[in-house]
Write a structure and sequence with these properties.
The protein has 319 residues and is α/β, with parallel strands linked by helices. The chain is 49% helix and 14% strand. Strand 7 and strand 8 form a beta hairpin. Bound molecules: zinc ion. Zinc ion binds next to loops. Zinc ion (ZN) binds next to loops.
Length: 319
């Protein structure tokens, strides 16, 4: 049986723990925004905002919708970034370069349509055959997706710039052309990513999600001249078909994409789809992707274009 004295000691100890938790909450709130002033809240969102909407009155040749099929052609780079060298894990990502991209390119050839491939410089270096295959038809664009899929929010500003410079230089050597389009690895802008996009002279970004039509990005109240071709977490397959995805059948996913496309068609704006060859290059999703492309092609007034073609058109009024 516990003595009165030991019960008192226990209750005192509990009291001390309770007090220290309360103090910790006061000094390190887990929800810091709850204490921000109006000015701090405005400042927090000011880095990259929606500026002018850029959907033109009419797309080239009187088309009513612009369609950009984009592929984040990630292979081993994101795993290597984290130091993973397991051949099994690497092989599942290598599928993207070895099987996914060739299958996607064959499908695009059958339909004679262009696409944009965002690649990391490391994946480009490891897969010269994939890079040559993407460039073969002359229809496709290659945009940049980081050096080794580094997460911009997890490196210093100086390191982010060093990696971006290194990536641009390396990818320019591989393709013979400086990339015009930027898509942030993991779609994650840091506080300086937009400044770097401007400084390095990119025509457009495709990482933000504030609209589902093209817009000019504004930063701290000023237009940046950078075109945004927005993407969306519903218009990609990783949350559904990826390792933690729970999509039993890609048919459901393509029903969602079809409804999104129909909406863009009705609104006369733009439809951007982002797929990953290491997932979407498998047989079942490829079957649905091809059916989807056939459906889009059956509609009159669709302009299939690369991201750079769309960005140039909305910025300069010509394809
Ligand atoms: Zn990626």
């Amino acid at each position: 049986m516990a003595s009165v004295r030991s019960l008192m000691l226990i209750s005192t100890a509990v009291g001390v723990v309770g007090l220290s938790v309360a103090r910790a909450q006061q000094t390190e709130p887990s929800q810091p925004g709850t204490r921000w002033s109006d000015a701090q809240l405005r400042e927090a969102v000011a880095t990259a905002r929606v500026g002018r909407k850029l959907t033109p009155k009419m797309w080239p040749n009187g088309a009513r919708v612009a369609v950009c099929l984009s592929f984040d052609a990630d292979s081993e780079a994101p795993l290597l970034r984290d130091g993973t060298t397991s051949p099994t894990a690497l092989s599942a990502s290598d599928f993207g370069a070895e099987s996914g991209v060739p299958r996607i390119l064959a499908m695009l050839d059958r339909h004679q349509i262009p696409a944009t491939f965002f690649v990391t410089a490391v994946d480009a270096m490891l897969h010269p055959d994939m890079m040559a295959a993407i460039q073969k038809s002359g229809r496709h664009e290659i945009g940049i997706h980081g050096w080794i899929h580094e997460t911009p929010t997890r490196v210093t500003a100086a390191e982010e710039e060093r990696l971006l410079d290194q990536a641009v230089e390396s990818l320019t050597k591989v393709t013979g052309k400086r990339p015009l389009g930027y898509r942030a690895p993991s779609w994650a802008f840091s506080a300086v990513t937009l400044d770097l996009i401007q400084k390095k002279g990119f025509l457009y970004d495709s990482s933000l999600q504030a609209l589902d039509e093209p817009y000019e990005i504004e930063s701290r109240g000023k237009p940046t001249g950078v075109v945004e071709l927005p993407i969306d977490w519903t218009l990609t397959e990783t949350p559904f078909l990826g390792q933690n995805g729970r999509m039993p059948n890609p048919a459901f996913l393509y029903q969602l994409y079809k409804d999104e496309f129909d909406g863009a068609y009705d609104e006369r704006t733009m439809f951007v789809l982002t797929l990953h060859p290491y997932l979407s290059g498998h047989r079942a999703p490829m079957h649905h992707l091809e059916q989807f492309v056939t459906y889009i092609q059956s509609k009159p007034g669709v302009w299939f274009a690369t991201g750079a073609e769309i960005a140039r058109y909305v910025k300069e009024g010509k394809p």
